[in-house]
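**Backbone description:**
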Amino acid sequence: MADDFSVYYSGKEKQFCETSFYIGQPLDNVYIRSKFEAEKAVYDAMLDGLEAKIIRVGNLTNRTTDFKFQPNYAQNAFLTRLKAMLEFGLFPDYLRPLYAEFSPVDLTAKGIIKIAQFADEPCIFHLNSNRTIYFDRFLEIMHELGISMKVVNATTFHNALQETLKNDDTSYIFKAFQNDMDEHGRLVYDSNIHIKNDFTVWFLKRLDFEWNKTDAKYLSGYINYFRKLGYLKV
Protein backbone atom coordinates (compact mmCIF):
# COMPACT_ATOMS: atom_id res chain seq x y z
CA MET A 1 0.00 0.00 0.00
CA ALA A 2 2.96 2.25 0.46
CA ASP A 3 5.37 2.06 -2.47
CA ASP A 4 4.57 -0.19 -5.39
CA PHE A 5 7.22 -2.91 -5.04
CA SER A 6 4.97 -5.67 -3.69
CA VAL A 7 6.45 -8.51 -1.60
CA TYR A 8 10.01 -7.36 -2.15
CA TYR A 9 12.44 -5.94 0.37
CA SER A 10 15.69 -4.33 -0.61
CA GLY A 11 18.49 -4.97 1.84
CA LYS A 12 19.72 -1.46 1.14
CA GLU A 13 17.53 1.63 1.30
CA LYS A 14 17.09 3.05 -2.19
CA GLN A 15 15.28 5.90 -3.91
CA PHE A 16 13.40 5.53 -7.17
CA CYS A 17 13.13 9.01 -8.66
CA GLU A 18 12.14 10.29 -12.09
CA THR A 19 15.56 9.57 -13.57
CA SER A 20 15.62 5.98 -12.26
CA PHE A 21 14.83 2.99 -14.44
CA TYR A 22 16.49 -0.24 -13.35
CA ILE A 23 17.87 -0.18 -9.82
CA GLY A 24 17.88 -3.91 -9.19
CA GLN A 25 14.14 -4.28 -8.60
CA PRO A 26 12.77 -7.78 -9.30
CA LEU A 27 11.09 -8.25 -12.67
CA ASP A 28 9.66 -11.75 -12.23
CA ASN A 29 6.11 -10.41 -11.83
CA VAL A 30 4.50 -10.48 -15.29
CA TYR A 31 2.65 -7.18 -14.81
CA ILE A 32 5.71 -5.32 -13.52
CA ARG A 33 7.87 -6.84 -16.26
CA SER A 34 5.44 -5.73 -18.97
CA LYS A 35 5.53 -2.12 -17.71
CA PHE A 36 9.32 -2.23 -17.59
CA GLU A 37 9.63 -3.58 -21.15
CA ALA A 38 7.06 -1.11 -22.47
CA GLU A 39 8.94 1.81 -20.97
CA LYS A 40 12.19 0.50 -22.42
CA ALA A 41 10.57 0.32 -25.87
CA VAL A 42 9.57 3.98 -25.58
CA TYR A 43 13.14 4.95 -24.62
CA ASP A 44 14.50 3.06 -27.62
CA ALA A 45 12.06 4.87 -29.90
CA MET A 46 13.05 8.22 -28.36
CA LEU A 47 16.66 7.50 -29.31
CA ASP A 48 15.40 7.14 -32.89
CA GLY A 49 13.71 10.52 -32.79
CA LEU A 50 10.30 9.91 -31.18
CA GLU A 51 9.08 12.91 -29.17
CA ALA A 52 7.62 11.40 -26.02
CA LYS A 53 7.16 11.85 -22.29
CA ILE A 54 7.02 9.09 -19.71
CA ILE A 55 4.37 9.54 -17.02
CA ARG A 56 4.40 6.98 -14.23
CA VAL A 57 1.09 7.35 -12.38
CA GLY A 58 0.40 6.49 -8.78
CA ASN A 59 -2.35 4.61 -6.96
CA LEU A 60 -5.44 5.80 -8.84
CA THR A 61 -8.42 6.40 -6.56
CA ASN A 62 -11.85 8.05 -6.59
CA ARG A 63 -12.50 11.49 -8.04
CA THR A 64 -12.37 14.43 -5.65
CA THR A 65 -15.61 15.91 -6.99
CA ASP A 66 -18.21 13.14 -6.64
CA PHE A 67 -15.97 10.22 -5.57
CA LYS A 68 -16.88 8.09 -8.58
CA PHE A 69 -14.42 5.36 -9.51
CA GLN A 70 -13.79 2.81 -12.23
CA PRO A 71 -16.83 0.62 -13.15
CA ASN A 72 -14.90 -2.59 -12.38
CA TYR A 73 -13.89 -1.35 -8.93
CA ALA A 74 -14.02 -4.86 -7.46
CA GLN A 75 -10.98 -5.75 -9.59
CA ASN A 76 -8.85 -2.93 -8.21
CA ALA A 77 -6.06 -4.53 -6.15
CA PHE A 78 -5.69 -1.69 -3.64
CA LEU A 79 -9.42 -1.51 -2.99
CA THR A 80 -9.66 -5.29 -2.65
CA ARG A 81 -7.01 -5.24 0.07
CA LEU A 82 -8.57 -2.25 1.81
CA LYS A 83 -12.01 -3.89 1.85
CA ALA A 84 -10.53 -7.07 3.31
CA MET A 85 -8.64 -5.17 6.02
CA LEU A 86 -11.59 -3.00 7.06
CA GLU A 87 -14.03 -5.91 7.16
CA PHE A 88 -11.48 -8.06 8.97
CA GLY A 89 -11.30 -5.44 11.70
CA LEU A 90 -7.69 -6.18 12.63
CA PHE A 91 -4.58 -4.24 11.70
CA PRO A 92 -0.99 -5.50 12.24
CA ASP A 93 1.11 -3.18 14.40
CA TYR A 94 4.16 -3.50 12.14
CA LEU A 95 2.34 -1.61 9.37
CA ARG A 96 1.58 1.44 11.52
CA PRO A 97 4.78 3.35 10.54
CA LEU A 98 3.88 3.06 6.84
CA TYR A 99 1.63 5.22 4.70
CA ALA A 100 -0.91 4.91 1.89
CA GLU A 101 -1.06 6.97 -1.27
CA PHE A 102 -4.33 8.08 -2.87
CA SER A 103 -4.01 9.74 -6.30
CA PRO A 104 -7.53 10.82 -7.33
CA VAL A 105 -8.13 9.99 -10.97
CA ASP A 106 -9.51 13.43 -11.86
CA LEU A 107 -6.42 15.20 -10.51
CA THR A 108 -4.19 12.64 -12.20
CA ALA A 109 -5.91 13.41 -15.52
CA LYS A 110 -5.46 17.13 -14.89
CA GLY A 111 -1.76 16.56 -14.18
CA ILE A 112 -1.34 14.57 -17.41
CA ILE A 113 -2.88 17.40 -19.41
CA LYS A 114 -0.60 19.96 -17.74
CA ILE A 115 2.46 17.86 -18.57
CA ALA A 116 1.33 17.33 -22.17
CA GLN A 117 0.76 21.06 -22.61
CA PHE A 118 3.83 22.54 -20.96
CA ALA A 119 6.68 20.00 -20.88
CA ASP A 120 8.71 20.93 -23.94
CA GLU A 121 11.59 18.50 -23.58
CA PRO A 122 11.35 14.70 -23.30
CA CYS A 123 11.03 14.08 -19.57
CA ILE A 124 9.94 11.46 -17.06
CA PHE A 125 7.32 12.27 -14.45
CA HIS A 126 6.11 10.54 -11.30
CA LEU A 127 2.48 11.62 -11.19
CA ASN A 128 1.61 10.29 -7.75
CA SER A 129 0.26 12.25 -4.81
CA ASN A 130 2.87 13.58 -2.40
CA ARG A 131 0.16 14.07 0.23
CA THR A 132 0.22 10.56 1.63
CA ILE A 133 -1.47 9.49 4.84
CA TYR A 134 0.24 7.47 7.56
CA PHE A 135 -1.72 4.53 8.88
CA ASP A 136 -1.91 5.91 12.43
CA ARG A 137 -3.97 8.82 11.09
CA PHE A 138 -5.85 6.56 8.67
CA LEU A 139 -6.99 4.38 11.58
CA GLU A 140 -8.14 7.45 13.50
CA ILE A 141 -10.29 8.55 10.57
CA MET A 142 -11.76 5.06 10.18
CA HIS A 143 -12.73 5.18 13.86
CA GLU A 144 -14.43 8.55 13.24
CA LEU A 145 -16.40 6.89 10.43
CA GLY A 146 -17.59 4.16 12.77
CA ILE A 147 -15.23 1.47 11.51
CA SER A 148 -13.65 -0.48 14.34
CA MET A 149 -10.01 -1.41 13.69
CA LYS A 150 -8.05 -3.17 16.43
CA VAL A 151 -4.25 -2.99 16.23
CA VAL A 152 -2.69 -6.37 17.09
CA ASN A 153 0.75 -7.95 16.98
CA ALA A 154 2.05 -9.98 14.05
CA THR A 155 1.25 -13.39 15.53
CA THR A 156 -2.32 -12.49 16.46
CA PHE A 157 -2.94 -11.00 13.04
CA HIS A 158 -1.52 -13.97 11.16
CA ASN A 159 -3.40 -16.55 13.26
CA ALA A 160 -6.68 -14.69 12.84
CA LEU A 161 -6.04 -14.40 9.11
CA GLN A 162 -5.57 -18.16 8.89
CA GLU A 163 -8.92 -18.64 10.65
CA THR A 164 -10.74 -16.77 7.87
CA LEU A 165 -10.01 -19.70 5.55
CA LYS A 166 -12.32 -21.93 7.59
CA ASN A 167 -15.43 -20.04 6.49
CA ASP A 168 -16.55 -19.45 2.91
CA ASP A 169 -17.94 -16.04 3.93
CA THR A 170 -14.55 -14.81 5.19
CA SER A 171 -12.03 -16.65 3.01
CA TYR A 172 -11.90 -13.63 0.68
CA ILE A 173 -9.98 -11.81 3.43
CA PHE A 174 -7.09 -14.27 3.36
CA LYS A 175 -7.13 -14.43 -0.44
CA ALA A 176 -6.79 -10.63 -0.64
CA PHE A 177 -3.45 -10.82 1.19
CA GLN A 178 -2.07 -14.22 0.23
CA ASN A 179 0.31 -12.85 -2.40
CA ASP A 180 1.57 -10.12 -0.07
CA MET A 181 2.97 -12.35 2.68
CA ASP A 182 6.57 -13.32 3.26
CA GLU A 183 7.73 -16.72 4.50
CA HIS A 184 6.85 -15.70 8.08
CA GLY A 185 3.30 -14.71 7.23
CA ARG A 186 3.92 -10.97 7.55
CA LEU A 187 2.46 -8.56 5.02
CA VAL A 188 5.24 -6.93 2.99
CA TYR A 189 4.36 -3.40 1.96
CA ASP A 190 7.66 -1.72 2.81
CA SER A 191 10.15 -2.52 0.06
CA ASN A 192 12.82 -0.16 1.45
CA ILE A 193 12.63 1.49 -2.00
CA HIS A 194 11.13 4.95 -1.77
CA ILE A 195 9.44 6.51 -4.78
CA LYS A 196 10.41 10.17 -5.12
CA ASN A 197 8.65 12.77 -7.24
CA ASP A 198 10.31 16.02 -6.21
CA PHE A 199 10.84 17.16 -9.82
CA THR A 200 7.25 16.42 -10.83
CA VAL A 201 5.81 18.21 -7.79
CA TRP A 202 8.04 21.23 -8.50
CA PHE A 203 7.14 21.28 -12.20
CA LEU A 204 3.39 21.07 -11.61
CA LYS A 205 3.36 23.56 -8.75
CA ARG A 206 4.67 26.17 -11.19
CA LEU A 207 1.53 25.45 -13.23
CA ASP A 208 -0.78 25.92 -10.21
CA PHE A 209 -1.34 22.18 -9.80
CA GLU A 210 -1.28 20.59 -6.37
CA TRP A 211 -2.64 17.34 -4.98
CA ASN A 212 -5.56 17.34 -2.56
CA LYS A 213 -5.06 16.49 1.10
CA THR A 214 -5.74 12.86 1.96
CA ASP A 215 -7.80 13.94 4.95
CA ALA A 216 -11.01 13.03 6.76
CA LYS A 217 -13.13 14.80 4.13
CA TYR A 218 -11.67 12.85 1.21
CA LEU A 219 -11.58 9.50 2.99
CA SER A 220 -15.15 9.95 4.22
CA GLY A 221 -16.35 10.46 0.65
CA TYR A 222 -14.19 7.55 -0.52
CA ILE A 223 -15.55 5.11 2.08
CA ASN A 224 -19.17 6.24 1.80
CA TYR A 225 -19.11 5.86 -1.98
CA PHE A 226 -18.34 2.15 -1.66
CA ARG A 227 -20.76 1.79 1.23
CA LYS A 228 -23.59 3.11 -0.96
CA LEU A 229 -22.66 0.61 -3.66
CA GLY A 230 -22.88 -2.18 -1.08
CA TYR A 231 -19.26 -3.11 -1.65
CA LEU A 232 -17.97 -2.07 1.78
CA LYS A 233 -19.94 -3.73 4.54
CA VAL A 234 -18.59 -1.70 7.44
Q: What stands out?
A: The radius of gyration is 19 Å. Confidence is low (pLDDT under 50) at residues 1-6. Strands lie at 14-16, 54-57, 60-61, 90-92, 99-100, 103-104, 124-127, 133-134, 150-152, 193-195.
